[in-house]
Amino acid sequence: MAGLIKREDIDEVRQRTDIKEVVDGYVTLKGAGLGSYKGLCPFHDERSPSFTIRPQVGRYHCFGCGEDGDVISFVQKLDHTSFHEAVEKLAARIGYELRYEDGGTGPSREEVGKRQRLLDAHKIADEFFRAQLLTAGAAEGRKFLQQRGFDRAAADHFGVGYAPQGWDALLKHLRGRGFTDPELKLTGMFSEGNRGIYDRFRGRLIWPIRDIAGDTIGFGARKLYEDDQGPKYLNTPETTLYKKSQVLYGIDLAKRNIAKDRQLVVVEGYTDVMACHLAGIPTAVATCGTAFAADHIKIARRLLSDDGTGGEVIFTFDGDAAGQKAALRAFEEDQRFVAQTYVAVEPTGADPCDLRQTRGDAAVRDLIASRRPLFEFAIRATLRRHNLDTVEGRVAALRESAPVVAQIRDAGLRPGYARELAGWLGMPIEDVTRAVGAAAKRGAPSAQAPGSQAPGAPAGGPQASGGARSNGAGFNSAPGSGQNVPGVAALPPSGVLPSFHRPDPRDPVASMERQALEVALQEPAMLGGAAWERFATARFATPAYQAIHDAIRATAPGFSGDAVQWVEALRQEVPEPLQPLVSELAVVPLPANTAEAVQKYCRDILARLFELQITRVKADKLGQLQRLDAGAHPEEFQQLNRELMMLEMERRSLRSDA
Questions:
Q1: For the domain bounded by 248-378, which CATH number is listed?
Q2: CATH superfamily of 7-110
Q3: Is it the case that residue 111 has pLDDT exceeding 60?
Q4: Burial class (CB in 10 A: 0-12, 13-18, 19+), 185
Q5: pTM, full prediction
Q6: What is the pLDDT of residues 196-226, one digit of tens each?
Q7: Which residues make Cβ contacts (< 8 Å) with residue 45, sequence separation at least 6?
Q8: Is 114-242 assigned to CATH 3.90.980.10?
Q9: Fewest 10 Å CB contacts: which of 20, 98, 547, 612?
Q10: Confidence class for position 454, pLDDT limits 50, 70, 90
Q11: Pairing relation of β-strands 233-235 and 248-249?
Q12: Which helix or strand (DSSP H or E) is residue 267 part of?
């Protein structure tokens, strides 16, 4: 029987796995100081990057929402797996063979997690469909691809396959690979009738739909034969793996280029994605049977690093009424982006696949290059609904289009488009400007995305007036503190550990104590020799920081692990409400750009801490000296003076060493 994974193996997987490589598969990361990286948080919607990782300590922390953890918890949360499954996935990734308690060798096939079984089934089905495309029965499928300009290499690159005609080709194949009917029912690849389950996809061209990590989670199927009574396109239904509102076809192939080029192109179909990539637009993706909506935007923004420093989202739509309607739906979601949004519509109504067939790759690139701002498209589409040859029509058009202009985020562009609108309507600019201003005052849809904040706003978001405030990371601050500077962990509702309150961010002592703990967690080697003696005997005025200092003193003696194990050991030593604070201190970037600068910064901070401790001890001894009767206790008086002199010499030595 398989048992629990051995603790030492879990530690080994955690230590050997590069958290940056794993996170890179989900979040676009940028350097944020020596050894630190930042990106848009995958756990909440934000405009300014506050998600930070520090590979040396193997942890991540979001300074906006407070999510934190190690590489195992990251995989758990992003892939929706159990702890056990996450460790196994990471172990497989680095080729590490896990050992289990009681001599087990790992889960049996029947015990493998449901999600992994579903992924295995999809992977095998993917391989099956691709192999079938090369058979004689798939001639119609190959013909379809050839007619649209896709050769064998293109089909291989995108994993295109073929579902054979008949009722049970895939069913038999997966049964033969050990999958049971109850498992197969959960995949979405089969339908169920009076006689049991049968293949959902039959006689169709197949596109694998993959998640951002590259795992196949569903399929899209295109009808090939006239006697097929089903819809033209048939996708996997909703399953535990496949949520169409969260899926973008081609994201696995496009993610790197989206991040590098700061561009996302949204097209309407699988062949359009293929055509764009082959034509030199490798940032194209498509939704799968649904409109581009909020969940898709979250994925896109993380890849774009949508933080107000550039980037563009380009929607391509057919020129017909349905395409225009889709473009206006996209405009409704426009304000969720910081990046500029555009629309590219081919005048003849041709989609990227048609363009590539008839006019070549350059025509596809030209289509994307001809993009227009989405709000311009929305304004013109609004005007087309009215008869501008009549006074009544122009007035109605102004009333409907003025709120669109009022939504333009860029205050510099808004007056320019008000003038454009005046020209399109043939009305005085003053009338149009007045109408736009009135629309803004009436509350045109906000330019700020729900659940996010404007560029440059504090990551914690707006604060309610009065009472205690939270920065979203589980930290409490007193009313009037002015800002959410990370400091201490929030109290549970029950009031456990009531002495842990947020220190005043203006308090230089609390700030210095925090910096000293950052050094201790991130650069523990700086605490060797005499520095450890000084650090261990230091007193911290802030209760939360003192609790972490106590954990360091309890853990450091005899500790022989690496930086990843060091931080994890400290997390386990502190009270549970303070564990997020330990992660935060371990990942916050140190203000230095070179290894030498880091060493100097750490020495300076520790010297300041030690000097503060000396100042405190001196104050205590000066108080004793003032209270002492020198005549009655001459020896004690002399001893205190000697100690004060030694403390002053030590303080001066610290300054000269720093």
A1: 3.40.1360.10
A2: Zinc finger, CHC2-typedomain (3.90.580.10)
A3: no
A4: middle
A5: 0.67
A6: 999 999 999 999 999 988 899 999 999 999 9
A7: 298, 301, 336, 449, 451, 452
A8: yes
A9: 20
A10: very low
A11: unpaired
A12: strand 263-267
